[in-house]
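Subject: Sanity check before I submit

Could someone independently write out the structure tokens for this chain? I want to compare against mine line by line before I put it in a report. The sequence has 403 residues.
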Amino acid sequence: MDCSNHAALHAAEPAKRDGFDYSMRSLRPRARLNSKRQVSSRVRLMCRAVIQSLCRQFSDSQVMSMQPTVSIVVYASLSALFAACSPGSNSVPHAQRTDSAGVSIILNSGVDRPLEWNYRPVERLGGEDDGPASFYEVHRHLASLDGQGDIVVLDKNEFRAVKFTKSGEFLLEAGREGEGPGEFKRPVGIGAARDGGFAVLDAGRGRYVQFDASGQLVEEVPARSFFSYFHLLDAGLVSQRLGYLMNGSVQRLLLSSASDTTVLAITDTAKTNSYRLEGCGPAPRNVGPVIFAPELVWHGNWNSIAVNSEPEYVVNILDATGRPVRSVRRDIPVEDATLALATQWAAENPTRFISSAGECVIDPQQVAEKRGFAPYVPLVGAVRFAPDGSLWVQRSAFVADSG
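---
Independent answer below. Compare away.
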């Protein structure tokens, strides 16, 4: 990463909402502002200081990434989600803070300009012919970082979890194929804890298999969700669950402990359509959510969970017990979904059929028309906590440039 290429960070403070009592519903934005402020030289210096600090911090951070060699590449990274601090920017976000029932509401106004990520490789793991680093498949749910900076990897093809230091040195290996305690039948995801412990989701046995920092089996608990990505808070395990309704589906974010399960966030119901696509010969009837259907966008560190569950730019932050403490927002209007935007989405996510005659791609407009689309395009595409606790928010790729 070239830290001279100043990218900007949307730093926010950690937040979250309870889906059962809908207590965070009252935190939806009531109005959208359009104020802009000029960047003073003092603010530019502050931005530069923040960026230089991040460059130092991220030299010790790890970001997992899929690579053509199917190995883990450990990066020092600086993201740009918001260009108020970038050279040439003439607007700076202005935060207005209010309080609602003990929840701090932070409304940020200002110009939003997406920038590029910058990376500098630090270490590479995986792709070896044999040994601890001989895994060949890496996804977000197959690697995790614990509180000491060590990396745990799920080598699901070899039914094992492998732990490395942040410099790539092998520490330990846990698990094996089987159906007994500490064994895996169909492992699909891994998550690391603050204290160095980790858990593996074994979908084959419907259990989370939990190990301590030394790789010793602690316990196995029933899995209430089979989403591969999950997170370990100090207070329990956070996972996502999909529920089906008569004509739609709903997603819930759950915090599970040994004694209780709490719903942390819930999406609005996503309409499900039944449709048949034409143009590639006989095709089965498809059933699925409409394009731009509401989804849970979330990430956690060991103290907090950040989640967006609605089209608006609202990121709620919960503490380790699931209590909402902050709501971070931008004054950016939600964009109405249109057939043109849905067709663009379908073109970038093509529907393919493969037969003996070869591959056939369905016309994107037909997909958009028959599958249908939600009323609004979600503003938030992804959220991530940085090692220092600041929040990074990525805008949806299908939202018009507000700058």
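---
OP: Matches mine. For the report I'm noting this point. Residues 186 and 204 are 4 Å apart (CA to CA).
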